[in-house]
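Please check this protein record:
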Amino acid sequence: MAAGFVVPLDYAGESGIVPIFIADHDSKGNAVRRDWITEVVVPCADILRGMAKQLAHDIWCVSEITEPAVHLLSQHYPCPGPGANSQLKAVVRYNAMDLAAGGHRRRIGLDIRLPSNVNDLLVDNPLPDLEAKDAERFVRRELKDPRLVGMMTLMLQGYSQRDAARLLAGESGPTLRRLFQRRIKTLRPGAEMELE
């Protein structure tokens, strides 16, 4: 078993308590000081378990979201300072949300996969002779805004422009739809998206 710290420090396998395991060295080989565990993790262990349960929907992943946070903070701050508890809780919160969403890029909307039929929505084929992979790269690069890429993705899955914009932007759907139409026109002058 890897060397590390277990919270609670006197954990003996008792039921009802989910332990938090933190390796004593990070991925770069830097040692994690015991201060980080005793002064920061132990006092807020129940809060960290609550975040795992509420945000990541699995209390047993508390070690998975806490360990990288402790390693990151201990790299930057070898000795925990007065705001270390707040810093740890903030990083753990983001780790839990990333885990629940399937990764950081997916949580912030950058990991959107476009289907292979990107050209199918464009009238007069304004993206001539592009393979599916090249068309996907083109759309990602040119649309830039993840909301517009998401809108294109939804439209390729059969949603109308109006419905795709409403799903992504709610009340601001019409504004997003106009932005999308303007962006398509600037990409290829004369190109129009098929409307409902």
Remarks:
- The chain is about 55% helix and 5% strand.
- The longest strand covers residues 4-7.
- The mean pLDDT is 79.
